[in-house]
Amino acid sequence: MAARQQLTPVLRRLQLPRAAANINRTRQAALQQSLSRPVRCLSSSRPRCFHQTTAVAATAKHTSETYPDIQRDARFAQLTPEHVAYFRGLLGSESAVIDGATSSDAADDIEPFNSDWMRKYRGHCRLVLKPSSTDEVSQILRYCNDNMLAVVPQGGNTGLVGGSVPVFDEIVVNMSRMNRILEFDEVSGALVAEAGCILEVADQFLASKGYIFPLDLGAKGSCHIGGNVSTNAGGLRLLRYGSLHGTVLGLEAVLADGTVVDDLCKLRKNNTGYDLKQLFIGAEGTIGIVTKVSIQCPQRSAAQNVAFFGLESFDKVQQAFREAKSQLSEILSAFELMDEGSQALVRQVTNNKRPLESQYPFYCLIETSGSNADHDSEKLAAFLEDVMEKGIVADGTLAQDETQIKSLWAWREGITEALSHLGGTYKYDVSIPVKDLYQLVEDTRARVDEAGLLGDSDEFPVRAVVGYGHMGDANLHLNVSTRRMDPRVEKVLEPFVYEWIAERQGSISAEHGLGLMKKKFIGYSRNPTMVGLMKNIKNTFDPKGILNPYKYL
Ligand code: FAD
Ligand code: MLT
Ligand code: ZN
Predict the structure, then answer these.
(1) Residues 527, 531, 534: CA angle, nearest 5 degrees
(2) Residue nearest atom 8 of ligand 2, based on CA coordinates
(3) For position 58, what pLDDT does the model report?
């Protein structure tokens, strides 16, 4: 009965879209005009997706100060003017070398390459190199290997685990100048591009051909496809298009000693020996620098619909997910989860009007992508009506056009940015069986509260403990939002969170990777045999350990 009372206003909102298919076609036509091959991707030397507010410290503390137990590896050489001269001679162009080693003017230019997106980690790098070809990457690495110079491969620097910035004085090899789309097969959907191509640019190019990049995430305007492959990024549509372990067809990479590994296969099937490219997917720059990627891209759907709804309990979220899979099956392309705490923070930062009139403990965003707008929207409307009648969903709304689709997505995609505006964040990215997924947020909140660290006023370091994530992939993002970074908070959270996950045989890194943050915790999700084999792989590909030291293993 309660559901029936809610249904009328919702159904009014359900009077619905024909717009999506047309909008997609219009957008494609515009892109077709604006893009010509080969495409140079835009890239900024300041790798940020969003502007930073004054609430956040302009610069982070140096990592070496925050974690004094990490010591510089004395085997690595100190950078000399001779080294810098070699790189200048090799790369030629002024813009390819940012030199803070022999010039004192470069401090401001180097800073964005030293600090991570969250402003949690900060290195002491004095030299940034921006190669423009595989051959240049190869020569850089050969020289570094011969001279024991440590290197951090860097894409768009949007990583969330401190993997993309140096800890000490490692040289940053930034891939932003290797940003060309090289080939696209309009029949098979195989795209070949350089690693520094920005994800959104690759996707816009594909849109002009009627295809879609099989990965989408909030940092798409800054992250590189080489960075995506190197972190094995999951994102918002993994539920539909699967992991990069399945969609990457081939890649080219350069090993620490300069050897070029050419595995740039464009075939869907290739069972000729070990599938070595898989080792580079998710290797976070520890065994080589990815220079080119070949990826299988699906047809872009003509129709897209988005629904946003409120639910009274996590149990109901699970029921809704079950119903969505069964009723929307082949057109379901995303099923995302947000708790009230995360939405309150987005509201606080953006001041935008909430999608629903009332507040609920949980919200879900469902996206469908299919070939027939009318059919898909009818299916989605029928689904929403059904789950409301069954009392699973308390209230819901359907986007009427592309503007509304974007604005509903912003409530999910905007959480990371909103958090970054409010101070520091301790971020955990975990995977556990769905039934336990949200319990972690509740247990963590209780623990932080018991420790006297959580409160509404300034004296408490923690503002909120929130959860959101990719429900469709059993991937939760537990975020502890702080007014300031405080070692007491980290002590309460670690290893508590990792132990909690290990007890449930979960993963402490579902999609963001290990980086610096989780290096010492790998044992909570991988047994000693696995870690031993990983170390053997690292030693085979990078025997001197120059690639991304202090991270991962
Ligand atoms: P970087 O941050 O530059 O690097 C990440 C790691 O890869 C580092 O270890 C670096 O050394 C290595 N690396 C980079 N390029 C290369 C290369 N060419 N060869 C070898 N190693 C390389 N992640 C998800 O999985 N899902 C999400 O939904 C998601 N959403 C995000 C939303 C926001 C707002 C932000 C800021 C980040 C998000 N991330 C997400 C995290 C991040 O992993 C991704 O943004 C992205 O995959 C990183 O790409 P990048 O080019 O910025 O890599
Ligand atoms: C997301 O899903 O929004 C990203 O993984 C980023 C985050 O965890 O904040
Ligand atoms: Zn995510």
Answers:
(1) 145
(2) 477
(3) 57
> How far is C-alpha 298 from the chain's CA centre?
20
- Ligand 1 mutation target, pool 133, 158, 167, 293, most atoms within 8 A of CB: 158
How does pLDDT run across 35-67, given as a tens digit for each residue?
222 222 223 322 233 333 334 455 789 999 999
pLDDT at 93: 77
Q: Do 217 and 233 form a contact (C-beta atoms < 8 A)? A: yes
Question: Look-up: residue for tokens 């290739």?
Answer: 270
Q: What is the CB-side half-sphere exposure of residue 67 using CA atoms within 13 A?
A: 20
Ligand nearest to the Cα of 479, by number:
2
HSE of 207 in the Cβ direction (CA atoms, 13 Å)?
Answer: 19
- The closest alpha carbon to 308, from 506, 13, 88, belongs to 13
Give the pTM: 0.92
Residue 500 Cα to ligand 2 midpoint, Å, equals: 20
Q: What is the mean pLDDT of the chain?
A: 90
| Residue 137 pLDDT | 98
Domains within the chain, CATH numbers bracketed: 2-33+302-415 (3.30.70.2190), 178-296 (3.30.465.10), 423-512 (3.30.70.2740)
Q: Is the CB of 477 under 6 A from ligand 2?
A: yes
Distance 159 CA to ligand 1 centre (A): 4
Tokens 């879900």 found at: 364
Q: Which pLDDT tens digit goes with each residue over 166-199?
A: 999 999 999 999 999 999 999 999 999 999 999 9
Banded pLDDT at 103 (limits 50, 70, 90): confident
Q: What is the pLDDT of residue 95?
A: 87
pLDDT of residue 9: 37
Beta bridge partners of 211: 299
The torsion angles phi and psi of 141, rounded to 5 degrees, stand at -65, -40
CA of 551 to the centre of ligand 1 (A): 14
Which residue type is seen at 16? Answer: L
Mutational test site, ligand 1, from 113, 154, 338, max ligand atoms within 8 Å of CB: 154
| Any atom of ligand 1 within 6 Å of the Cβ of 289 | yes
DSSP 334: E
Cα separation values, 258 from 24, 129, 180, 192, 250, Å: 44, 15, 22, 22, 19
3-class DSSP assignment, residue 262: strand
Q: What is the mean pLDDT of residues 69-78?
A: 98
4 pLDDT band, cuts 50/70/90, is very low
Bridge partners, residue 97, by sequence:
129
